[in-house]
Design goal:
It is a single chain. The chain has 407 residues and is an alpha+beta fold. The chain folds into two domains: 110 residues, no CATH class; 189 residues, Jelly Rolls, CATH 2.60.120. α1 packs across α2 and α1 runs parallel beside α4. It is globular.
């Protein structure tokens, strides 16, 4: 189901008064997370429903929701420090005190681009005072940065490599493109074919990501703290690569040579498609999300086919492979420059923060029982995240590269 259709379904359910609290929070989260282009791209029926509700033309919502208040405060929030009081006219059954708290948090986050839903059981209107954060030096990311290890063990730091040919392996050339991406010219194009298989490994440190074109034209994005091992030229019946961490793949079609991605626990087989694999060792599951085409996922004697919009999840605690609906936007948000949270707990969020800002997370206190939804740009310095945590009453301190959660 497309995002537009899903939002319309949630919106229609709310208008019919059979939208659950969770579904309502999801609807409002989607609307807040959309940028102007995404909102303008909504279908006419959804725009019409929104405008009718805002104008009070729908009897089922006129007495319940102040739509002008919602529209101005949520979708077009301009005063980033303003406190939004709880409107007692909002229906209690859908948890408006939670929503009010979330909107307050939205108001103090940079650019208003994120919508976080707390699970606090407060019975009073929430008022937040945000103090400016002061750090000796704000923490920023490294952007495009990776290390290439050639078949002979030579190491090349790619962010300092010059444009053009940066290495030769037999008749194969490794090329740094003008775009900053890495590309291979296979031996079959530039000279005598070699039967020797050479493997290269590209690795991203924490706080960085990278893109690479493989010799068959397949394009791979690597997230932070990830690595990809691959042959410089694909030979044999299959095109096989090995992934650690997270990668997004746009595979060049070749019916004669299936493309296989192997991780520590899951193998994904494709002919030509777009998909994302998240296989970090510190996550509780390996996830493959399909955007386009068809893939087959394998784990031991378990296997399944994925259609677009589906994901395969292999849990590390029980080694059971399951298939279900995917939040595609969340799965590829990192590639598009965002953190995207969907009812994520603190530890899930902090694992991403750790990888993207090169921090070690230390917990001196029990983790607050809170969940968050929304998106925020990854290009922001760390203070963009810490401002959010402070507004949620999560206390911490930073010592060097340690991020310490306190009481």
């Amino acid at each position: 189901m497309e995002l537009d259709e899903h939002v319309q379904l949630l919106f229609a359910k709310y208008i019919r008064k059979d939208c659950s609290e969770i579904e309502f929070e999801e609807l409002l989260t989607w609307l807040v997370a959309m940028d102007e282009d995404e909102k303008n791209a909504l279908s006419a029926p959804l725009k019409d429903l929104w405008e009718q509700a805002k104008a009070g033309k729908l009897d089922s919502t006129t007495d319940q929701i102040n739509w002008d208040h919602i529209l101005n405060r949520v979708l077009h929030l301009t005063d980033q420090s303003q406190i939004i009081p709880l409107d007692e006219a909002f229906p209690r059954r859908i948890g408006w005190r939670k929503i009010a708290a979330a909107i307050i948090i939205l108001g103090v986050v940079l650019s208003g681009s994120i919508f976080f839903l707390t699970r606090k059981s407060s019975t009073e209107a929430v008022k937040t005072v945000v103090k400016p954060l002061r750090y000796p030096k704000d923490i920023v990311t490294r952007g495009n940065n990776a290390i290439l290890t050639l078949s002979n063990g030579t190491i090349i730091v790619l962010d300092t490599a010059k444009k053009g040919v940066i290495a030769e392996q037999g008749n194969e050339k490794v090329i740094m493109m003008d775009s900053g991406q890495l590309s291979y010219t296979p031996a079959t194009i530039i000279g005598t074919y070699s039967t020797d298989i050479r493997y290269n490994t590209i690795s991203t440190p924490r706080a960085a990501q990278y893109q690479i074109f493989l010799s068959d034209g397949t394009k791979v994005w690597l997230n932070a703290a990830s690595s990809l091992r691959y042959p410089t030229t694909f030979s044999g019946k299959n095109r096989i690569v090995e992934l650690q961490g997270e990668g997004y793949f746009e595979v060049t079609k070749n019916k004669e040579k299936p493309f296989l991605v192997r991780t520590a626990g899951m193998e994904v087989a494709v002919l030509g498609t777009r998909f994302n694999i998240m296989a970090y060792e510190d996550e509780n599951a390996i996830q493959t999300t399909l955007l386009e085409g068809l893939v087959k996922v394998n784990h031991g004697n378990q296997s399944d086919l994925l259609d677009p919009g589906k994901k395969a999840v292999l849990r590390r605690d029980n080694s059971i492979l399951t298939v279900g609906d995917a939040n595609v936007n969340q799965a590829v948000a990192w590639k598009n420059g965002y953190f995207y949270f969907d009812r994520s707990d603190i530890k899930t969020i902090m694992r991403q923060v750790s990888r993207w800002y090169d921090l070690d997370i230390v917990y001196e206190a029990p983790v607050p029982d809170m969940q968050f939804s929304g998106k925020i740009e990854r290009k922001l310095p760390l203070s963009g995240i810490t401002r959010l945590l402070e507004s949620s009453q999560i206390h911490f301190r930073i010592e060097g590269n340690k991020f310490i959660i306190m009481n």
